[in-house]
Amino acid sequence: MIDKIYKFYGWEETSEVLLLTNDLRDIQTVRDLYDALSTIWCADTCAPRMREQWSESNPTLGQCSITAFLVQDLCGGRVYGVLRPGGNYHCYNEVNGHIFDLTSEQFGEEVLSYENNPEQFREEHFAKEEKRLRYEYLKSELQRRYGR
């Protein structure tokens, strides 16, 4: 059987990263989670400053922090951020030595550096109510659609 080829950063190692819960139907690995989130990401979950550019052809646009913190909830690990022009951080995950970025596809061919970036904390990110609400919506939709 040929595995599906993914395009997000670090996808090759994510079959080894398992969810810490079995509360989600058919979701056991980070790859399974990516597949599920791909059905949920939408303009409503996109960062407001990017919402006009969001499209179904670029569904990961503006989804990084809410996705990375949801992955942390489900898999543990840490969230790190790549400093972007304009002063915002693009968030990604590290779990048990595996570094991956479920929303890296939004950058197309641009190559980000996933080394020596500062850890990110939900308290700081979710101090923005709109971001916390987008995270809660993403989490609730995942549970509604895939919960046992």
Detail the topology: elements first, then pairings.
Layout: H1 30-37, H2 64-75, E1 78-83, E2 89-95, E3 98-100, H3 122-125, H4 129-146
Antiparallel strand pairs: 1-2, 2-3
Helix pairs in contact: 2-4
**What is the gyration radius calculated from CA atoms?**
14 Å
Proportion of residues in helical segments: 25-40%
Largest sheet: 3 strands, antiparallel
Query: What is the count of structural domains?
Result: 1
**Which class best fits the helix and strand makeup?**
alpha+beta
Question: How large is the count of helical segments?
Answer: 4
Distance between the termini: 27 Å
Characterization of this structure:
The protein has helices at 30-37, 64-75, 122-125, 129-146; strands spanning 78-83, 89-95, 98-100. The protein has one domain (11-146). Helix 2 (64-75) crosses helix 4 (129-146). The protein is globular and about 40 Å long. The chain has a 3-stranded antiparallel β-sheet with strand order 1-2-3, with helices on one face. It is an alpha+beta fold and 148 residues long. It is built from 4 helices and 3 strands.
